[in-house]
Amino acid sequence: MNYLIIFGKPRFLGLISDCEEHLEKNVKVVIESSRGLELGYVAGTLSKEQVRKYKEKFESPKEYDESDNIRSTEPLWQCVSLLRLADDGDLSEAERQRGEEEEALPLVRKILKNHDLPMKIVDMEYVLDRKKLYFYFTSEQRVDFRCFVKDLAREFKTRIELRQIGARDEAKILGGLAPCGNPCCCSYWMSEFFPICIRMVKEQNLALNPSKISGLCGRLMCCMSYEYDLYKQLWNDLPNPGTKIKTPSGNYHISGVDLASSSVRIRSPEGVEFLVPVYEFALFRKTVEDGNKWSLHPKSGDIAEVAQSLSETFTSSVESSPSRPSNDDRRKREEKNENTRNGKGKIKQKTKGRKRKSKI
């Protein structure tokens, strides 16, 4: 049986092939990877076809995402060896390491400040046997950190390895809640990043608002690519906004396309805008180019239903709204308020001349 293992803070993928032992999903295991002894969990079983697809996916050259300017040096996919099921000692050791890492980060950043290097420490991670300590950092350039590594080795007394990561990898390691309210896809279920460009956003008719289309990493959100292939297929059957249709009576302008309802918004030569379903657009174009007028002929039953619904809506809104006061009622209310104000003023004038008796 083949098992998929997820381990490490960057969510590396490991393959345990031809395992005779039955492993339940989400069970913690101790494995040996290229980094050393590590604690991971079983993500599920893999068929031979799935193993082949994973190998083709991760071992073939990938398209480079220029938005990060960083290539990951750590293999995301690798074969690992199963040593044993994790016991209470392994779990307590892993928990102890996470606590030590959190406490040591301020010290590491203080050491980095003394070296004045243009880099930012994101996180650190021990392997299970403490033979290695990994540091993940971001930087806009290549950094010579040899002296920094010596100070870290002197402080932690173990082998130190630094890994430069991109902005998207930083969000993947740290995690958090995305603008949609769910955990970030990269830290929750995604195994790799895909190149995303602003053209994908434009072709989905989304607002180009940076706060709406950017994730915690500051880059375009990964979900911008989820439905892109579908929208790309839809655009093959739709005209581009701004296209002109020349007719004997004038030009028709395509002012917009609504992909959700699969309709085209068109402005006539008279300046009237109307919608044409996508499946009727070819017929519409041929009709107006031949000099004929295009008209929609809804069924009489549909018109009656629309008129009835509008009448009911208008009637209910009128009945539910409170009646407006008449001019006489408004005038009486104003006179009453004026009399009240005058009465209060007279009382104040009477009490103003009185003197309080002094207490003996």
Give structural notes.
With 360 residues, this protein is an alpha+beta fold. It folds into 4 domains: 1-86, no CATH class; 87-164, GMP Synthetase, Chain A, domain 3, CATH 3.30.300; 169-233, no CATH class; 244-289, no CATH class. Helix content is 38%, strand content 22%. The strands form 3 sheets. It has a 6-stranded mixed beta sheet. The radius of gyration is 35 Å and the shape is extended. 17% of the residues are buried.
Unreliable residue stretches = 298-307, 316-323
- Would you count the extended β strands for me? 13
Number of continuous helical runs: 11
Structural class category: alpha+beta
Strand order of the main beta sheet, please?
A: 5-2-1-4-3-6
Secondary structure blueprint with pairings:
Layout: E1 2-7, E2 12-16, E3 28-33, E4 36-46, H1 48-59, E5 77-79, E6 81-85, H2 88-115, E7 120-126, E8 132-138, H3 146-156, E9 159-164, H4 167-174, H5 185-188, H6 198-203, H7 210-213, H8 228-235, E10 244-247, E11 250-258, E12 263-267, E13 273-277, H9 281-289, H10 300-320, H11 327-352
Parallel strand pairs: 2-5, 8-9
Antiparallel strand pairs: 1-2, 1-4, 3-4, 3-6, 7-8, 10-11, 11-12, 12-13
Helix pairs in contact: 2-3
